[in-house]
Every structure is written in C-alpha cells, then in structure tokens.
Specification:
Elements: H1 21-30, E1 43-44, E2 48-50, E3 53-54, E4 62-71, H2 83-88, E5 92-100, E6 107-114, E7 124-125, E8 132-133, E9 143-145, E10 148-150, E11 153-158, H3 165-170, E12 187-196, E13 207-212, E14 219-222, E15 228-232, E16 235-241, E17 247-254, E18 264-266, E19 274-275, E20 278-288, H4 289-293, H5 305-318, E21 325-326, E22 339-349, E23 354-362, E24 366-368, E25 374-380, E26 389-398, E27 402-406, E28 412-414, E29 419-424, E30 432-437, H6 456-480
Parallel strand pairs: 2-25, 4-26, 14-21
Antiparallel strand pairs: 1-24, 3-6, 4-5, 5-23, 6-22, 7-8, 9-10, 9-23, 11-22, 12-17, 12-20, 13-16, 13-18, 14-17, 15-16, 18-19, 24-25, 25-30, 26-29, 27-30, 28-29
Length: 483
C-alpha cells in the first residue's frame, strides 16, 4: 500500500502554528530561531506588496520616477480586541509614480496594485454577528492622479505563498474563468450519509472509507470531512473519522457515477482492520456548480462573486488528486483567508504628457519573537521590470524604530527626520526586504555571514535537510489544519 497522505484530524484556524518549509528558510534568514518554554505563538505571517502593473498588453508609458514611501509610526499588535483598534493601526506604504507618454496619441491603461492577503493578526469579527469583517482597512486608503482621488476597485485572487507576476496577473479575470472542466452550470449532487452501529467502547478512533477507481475525467469528488487518502493499487481510498451519528457529505461534480460509494468502517485511521458498523444514505440534493462554490460566500464581503468563484476554481484545480478527488483543505469552500487583495484603476495620459499617480495601501509585517520581537517588511520590486522603461527610484522609510537589516545596500539614516532613504537611478536586481525593531539590542547579522564567519547559507541548507526528513508531514498537517 502506497501511503500518499498522512491521516489526521481537522484543526481550527486559530490553533495552527506550524511553519512550512519556506517559512523555516525565511526564518533562518531573518532571525535566530527562538525556543520558548510555553506554547504561545511567537511568529505571525504578514503580507507582501509590490508596485503598480499594467493589467493587459504592452504599455508605452515610461516610469520616469517612483517615490516609494513607508510610513511606520507604530508596530501592529498580534491581537486586536475590537474592529476599531485594528483599523486604528496606521502602518502603510505609498508608491508615487511619474508617468510619461512619449507617443503622439493618448494612452489609457488599467493598472493593478497587489498588496497581499489580510495578515494573520488582521482578522476581525463583528461583535454582534460574530461574522468576520474583511476589507475595512482598505477603505482608509486610495489612488490619486495629479493630486485628486480617482475611483479604484478592490479585486481578489487566490494567493499562493509567493508572488509571480505573470501567473498571478492571469488570475485577474473580468468574468468567470474559462476552465476545461468547471462551469457555473455544471451539475453537482450532494450525498449525505450517517454513521451508526459502531462499538465506541472498543473503537474510539474509527474511520469510514470508500474507494475511487475511475471517473473518466468527467466526475470530481469533494468530501469536506475527509481526514486522509491512500493510493491502493489502481484505486484511491478516501477516509474520514467517524462515531455514531457522524454525518458525511460527499459532492459528486459533473457526471454522476453508475454506482454510489461502497462504504466500510475500520478500527482506526490506518484503514487496515474492518469492524462492524454502517454508513447509511439519508439525503440527496442537487445544485449547480455555481451554487456549490458559494456555500460560504457572503454577499456582504468586499469580494465580488466572480472573484470568489475564480479563486475556488483555482484552488480546486491546485489540490485535485487521483481519480478527480479534491483534497478538502477548506471548510465549505471558504477561501477568504487565501485571497490576495488588489487595487484596480485606470489612468489616461495624453500625448507627450506627464502625470503623477500615487497609490497607498495598508502595510503588515511578519512578526517574529516575543522577548525582542522583529518586524519584517517585504516589497517586491521585480514586477516593475514589466514597464517599457523604468528610471529613478527613491525609497523613504519614515519610522522612529531601528533598521536592523535591509536587502538593498546604501540605505542612509536621517536622525533629525526619523527616516531612512535610498536613491537609485534604475531598478535594483533584487527585492526590498527590511527588518525593524524597537532597539539595537539583539542586532541581526547579515544574511550571508555572521561575525563569527558562520554562513547563513549553510544554516538554511541544514534546515532544508532536517525538513527533508520530517518536513513533509509538517507541511501536510499545517496545510490541512489552516481551517
């Protein structure tokens, strides 16, 4: 039997503190690993941002200058009691461009400015409805052209752990994404089963399962409560933890199979020894795929219906396994905490004209440590390479805090104005990453080598070797448990 996935129970969103392999590597680069005697979370993910990008096609506009300003008068809290406290946080980044049109005709361009997901510490809930409040922080900021505010549209796409300009730009669709399998009208049938007849005094970790052997590419299977799967010869065995009264919901998407799942119950998640019990079909209901996708969609969210639909389709394709099985990483298709946020807006530049375009967005660092916390900020500069020509770049970090580390050399400190500045006559080769802290104490070493000559590259390689041995299981549990 080929084990293809660790079996495990669901974990609630707020309880997950595992780090993915990429997170370990980033931590090794950013700060010494801290070990705490208690089990409190000491690392929080932040968000990444990058500059404005043309949405479609080639654009003749030249970026003569960009003033990139970080206003960081305070560090964020890792927990907020109220929505008002969260919205009072004022850290932000603004990118002010001077665009020049060298052509003899007017150019109208649709630009998008991605500024990351909501951070781990940024989810707020309405105290009366107990429903999450998303997007409220984006209302504080906006887009300006020649000093006047212009209309912006908040867009969302499924976000991976990194950002790739071409890949992520392709996710921005004006309507429903065209997919080889999924369409809004595709039929979906939900089968609801109930478990019973289990001797719970003997089997307190019983699991129910069934096998998929084919689908001909015409049927996809989604089971939210699945706790794992195994490849068994030419079949895929799906399973779920059960006790008497447990309800199991199986969604068949597309053509319905000739035979319904043949369930069986085993003594534990290893699915080796079968025991007495029964899984009874108690309900069957029909819907379209468009209705299926919106099981957790709230029209009051600042997410359009089409952006939500497209994000779900992307993730379902991403996590499809053998025989059309969709691994259930999200509860009732709730993708709200996987969404990259974008501003979308238009500019028009006449022939030979120059305009200034300023975009401001909230800024959320990753937070590391407790005794001497550090705050890591990331701004991706590489997507700016997509412009026809990009000339001067000035970076200003307004902050009363200490700059412990920066990925770009030459950052100068101005004590009187409480800022750090850097001027470049072209785009640098790398991204902008910097670390702030409240004091010089515990100053971080450089990314390449510390004062004793220990190479951080070697440290990262060692961490990668450790993860190669045990990191795969950690990845699965972390990803599975994010809800």
């Amino acid at each position: 039997m080929e084990q293809t996935k660790n079996r495990k129970k669901k974990m609630k969103k707020t309880g997950t503190a595992l780090l993915l392999a990429a997170g370990w590597a980033g931590l090794c680069l950013a700060a010494p690993l801290e070990v705490s005697a208690n089990s409190a979370q000491s690392d929080w993910e932040g968000t990444r941002a990058n500059g404005a990008v043309v949405k479609e096609g080639e654009c003749p506009l030249i970026v003569e200058q960009e003033l990139l300003t970080f206003d960081i008068p305070e560090f964020p809290e890792t927990h907020y009691q109220t929505r008002e406290q969260f919205l009072a946080y004022s850290g932000n980044v603004s990118a002010e461009y001077t665009f020049y049109n060298p052509e003899d005709y007017s150019v109208t361009a649709t630009l998008v400015f991605p500024f990351g997901k909501v951070p781990e510490y940024g989810f707020q809930y309405d105290t009366e409805t107990l429903q999450p409040v998303y997007g409220a922080d984006t209302e504080k900021y906006g887009v300006m052209v020649n000093g006047e505010e212009v209309e912006k549209r908040l867009r969302h796409t499924y976000a991976a752990d990194d950002f790739e300009t071409e890949r992520d730009m392709a996710k921005l669709q004006d309507g429903y994404v065209e997919d080889a399998f999924y369409t809004p009208e595709l039929p979906v049938i939900k089968y609801t089963y109930e478990a019973g007849g289990i001797d719970e005094s003997r089997y307190d970790a019983a699991s129910a399962g069934f096998r998929l052997s084919s689908g001909g590419g015409k049927t996809k299977v989604y089971m939210e409560t699945s706790s794992g799967y195994n490849r068994v010869g030419n079949e895929l065995e799906l399973s779920s933890w059960v006790s008497n009264g447990t309800l199991l919901e199986v969604y068949m998407i597309g053509e319905q199979p000739e035979e319904l799942p043949q369930w069986y119950i085993c003594e534990n998640g290893a699915m080796e020894e079968r025991i007495d019990g029964e899984i009874i079909l108690i309900d069957r209901s029909e819907m379209t795929f468009g209705e299926f996708v919106k099981m957790s969609y709230d029209p009051k969210l600042p997410v359009s219906e089409t952006d939500w639909y497209n994000a779900v389709v992307y993730e379902m394709n991403l996590y499809e396994r053998d025989f059309g099985f969709i691994d259930s990483f999200f509860d009732r298709l709730d993708v709200s905490d996987t969404l990259m946020r974008w501003y979308e807006y238009e500019i028009t530049v006449g022939p030979g004209e120059r305009i200034t375009n300023k975009v401001t967005a909230p800024l959320y660092p990753a937070v590391h440590g407790e005794a001497d916390p550090t705050y890591d900020y990331t701004y991706l500069l590489s997507p700016a390479q997509t412009w026809k020509e990009f000339q001067d770049l000035e970076i200003v970090i307004h902050t009363p805090f200490v700059l412990r580390e920066c990925s770009l050399e030459g950052m100068e400190k101005n004590e009187a104005e409480e800022n750090y500045t850097l001027k470049l006559d072209s785009l640098p080769g790398g991204e902008l990453e910097f670390t702030l802290a409240e004091s010089e104490e515990g100053r971080l070493l450089t990314r390449t080598e510390n004062e004793t000559g220990i190479s951080w590259t070697a440290v990262v390689a060692a961490a990668a070797a450790i993860l190669a041995a045990g990191g795969a299981a950690g990845y699965i549990v972390s990803r599975k448990g994010r809800k």
